[in-house]
Structures are given as C-alpha cells and as structure tokens.
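Researcher: I'd like a structural prediction for the single chain below. Treat it as a standalone chain; there are no partners to consider.
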Amino acid sequence: MASNKNQEREARERLKLYNARQGVHEHRVKRRRRDNIIAVLGALVVIALAAATQIFYFSAGPGVPEATPSASATPEATGENVGDVPDADTAESRAWTGELTLNDIPLGITLDGALAPQAAASLIGDIQNGYLVGKTCHRLADSDGFKVLQCGSLDGTGATDASYSFGPIENAPADDVYPTGTIAMARVGDDAYSNGHQFFIVFGDTTIPSDTAGGYTVVGQVTSGLDALQSGVIDAGIADGAADGAPVVATTITAATIQ
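Model: Treating it as a single chain, here is the predicted structure.
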C-alpha cells in the first residue's frame, strides 16, 4: 500500500516537472516568435526610413533647388562656361530694376550686376529677349526652413536647358541663409558651373547648407508683391499634399521687364 502511494507521489512530481518544463518551452517559443516579429518590423521601419531619406534628399532636401535633369541635358562639371553665355559685362556692375509677373501677379525685382554680374547678365538677357515669358514655375517647396518657388524651366519639369551653363557661384551667403525675397540661381548637384536659365524665389527665410560648389548665387531681390504671390499661389499648397513638388495653382511667367 505504501509502495503504491510512493509511486503515485512520484508520478505527480514527474507530471508537475513535465508541466513546468512544458511551460518554460512554450514561453521560450512565444518569446522567440515575438522577437522575430519585432526584428522584422524593425527592419521594415529601417528600410522605410532609408527610402524616405533618399526621396527627401534627392527631391526635397535643402541644397537641391533644381530637379535632377536627364543625363543628356546635364552639362559636365568642366569648371568653365559652356555655350553662348551672355557676357558678364552686360550687367554693367550696377543695380537693375524691373518687374516679374507670375499668373498676372506683379513682383517688383532688383538684380545685382555688381555682386553677381554673370548671373545678372543671364537673367537680364532672358528678360530682354523674351525667353522667360511662358516658362513655368514647376516646383514649390514649403517646409520649415526651406521655402522656395523655382521658375524658368524650358520643359516645365526642371530639366536643364542645354543651351548654355555658367559659373562660378557668385554672392552666396556666408551663413547659408537665404532671406525672404531672395532671388537665387538654381543649378545641378554640386556643379558650380551648372547655372542656367532657372532661378528660385525665396518666400520665407531658407537655410541651404553649402556643398562642395559653395552655395547658390544670390542674383537679386523681390522688392514687392510677395504677399500677393503667397495668397495667389503658395497658400493653395502643393500637389498631393506634399512638402515639395508642383504647385496646386499652375504658375507661369506671364510678363517680365528690366531696366
């Protein structure tokens, strides 16, 4: 009788030990499954963040006001002007005043032929020969510290007009800050000699860290009309609710004068 009781007790102990081991095993399995799920989710988050960073850097990040052009349209970084670039002397080392009209919104402008003679000569030529009229403002960027409207694209996509390119960078801010109202030249990547016909208007203080090319040429200022541009174009936002892209209000240069 005692032997049977001992056997029953041993059986109960073995069952208890088995159940305890089984519980530990199940806990380990669940923990491994949870850890695997967390690892997979973490990897997906890292991939998503990397993709978002790449998209932001190449399409919306500071220091890239000009959209990446096609390879065939991109001038080589030769360190010299390419094509029939207007003579910098035509800027006459003086201030030029005029008006740039976007969607019938007149903006008073000045161009600095003394501090940015080559860029000023280019824009003066584009205004005087009628090149800018009919060109679009294809890119609007509106985020904290980066507020620009880019204009002058030949095909409305931001691709470079291959007719000419010039440099070097002129009159770039030493502190990388482009104050509200600044008119600056757009260019490709870190090529200081890829300035052309495109420019951007700063409608809110903007910081663009300098790259190896040394910033962006500040060629002039908007002296009036920014409030109307804000309400007529910028406040409507950017396509698809993005922070950088085509403005919801299609914007065209409808007139331009300079003297």
